[in-house]
Automatic annotation (TrEMBL):
Pfam family membership, one: GDPD
PANTHER family reported in the protein's UniProt record: GLYCEROPHOSPHODIESTER PHOSPHODIESTERASE, CYTOPLASMIC, GLYCEROPHOSPHORYL DIESTER PHOSPHODIESTERASE
Coiled-coil stretches noted in the UniProt entry, renumbered to this chain: none
Residue intervals of the GP-PDE domain: 7-245
GO molecular function: phosphoric diester hydrolase activity
The protein's name: Glycerophosphoryl diester phosphodiesterase
GO terms for biological process, alphabetical: lipid metabolic process
Organism of derivation: Roseateles toxinivorans
Classification via InterPro entries: GP_PDE_dom (IPR030395), PLC-like_Pdiesterase_TIM-brl (IPR017946)
Length: 245
């Protein structure tokens, strides 16, 4: 098992809600606030190019509609992913994973790639994101961290990039969640922070894994989680939580 690659504080979708999520402008803003580790959501274009978008559909964060993964990259790359947020970000494009990799590797930032497949494409998305991540990070001396709510996506990523550490994301303590993480050779479990407490961190640690949480924006909650042993916090509040490392 390779060394744990992550700083404690991780900026959610680049810079939380302060900039348009999952754009390079957001990562730049998060970095201006001192962040050196970032989470992003990645899915595939129609021809299989990994790009950043949270939702399966385009309407919340762009002027377009419909399933993003049904569009070719030639269309996706020209869509405005900034204007919905505020005028100053109008024209900010949807980035490819390739473009984000260039940015984070140049700055030696840590990246948590949440594999967020278009429904029905879980295994394929994991396989392709794994293959592309391996190619993009090769020779950089760094590795990102994969995470996903979808175990099939982590299975796919393990097939094509077994050396890249994996984390199982969970939003409920469903039957067998820790066994699932172990079966996928995960190095971490990332839970909704409402699920995490001393007992849960202790169970995760006893299995030899790290315990991370999303999305913590409240100071008292963060302090409580730290006291209960979490190994990392994903936050929107990049202007209020100053990363120590
Ligand atoms: O990866 C942690 C967090 O981003 C998971 O939830 O919906 O914000 O992608 P979501
Ligand atoms: Mg996410």
């Amino acid at each position: 098992m390779s060394a744990w690659p992550f700083p404690f504080w991780i900026a959610h979708r680049g810079a939380g809600k302060l900039a348009p999520e999952n754009t390079l402008a957001a990562f730049r803003l998060g970095a201006q606030h001192g962040y050196r580790a970032f989470e992003c959501d990645v899915k595939l274009s129609r021809e299989g190019i990994p790009f950043l978008l949270h939702d399966a559909t385009l309407q919340r964060t762009t002027p377009e509609h419909g399933v993003a993964g049904e569009r070719p990259w030639s269309e996706l790359s020209r869509i405005d992913a900034g204007a919905w947020h505020s005028r100053g970000y109008a024209g900010e494009p949807i980035p490819s994973l390739d473009a984000l990799a260039t940015y984070v590797i140049a700055n030696r930032f840590a990246l948590n790639i949440e594999i967020k497949p278009t429904p029905g494409l879980e295994l394929l998305t994991g396989q392709v994101v794994g293959r592309e991540t391996r190619r993009l990070w090769q020779g950089s001396g760094q590795l990102p961290l994969f995470s996903s709510f979808r175990p099939e996506a982590l299975t796919g990523a393990r097939e094509t990039a077994p050396e890249v550490p994996r984390a199982l994301l969970i939003d409920s303590l469903r039957e067998g969640w820790l066994d699932e993480a172990r079966a996928l050779d995960c190095q971490a479990v990332v839970t909704n922070y409402a699920l995490m407490n001393f007992e849960t961190t202790a169970r995760i640690h006893a299995a030899g894994l790290k315990a991370l949480v999303y999305t913590v924006n409240d100071e008292a909650a963060a302090q409580w989680l730290i006291a209960n042993g979490v190994d990392g916090i994903i936050t929107d509040a990049v202007d209020r939580f100053s990363p120590a490392e």
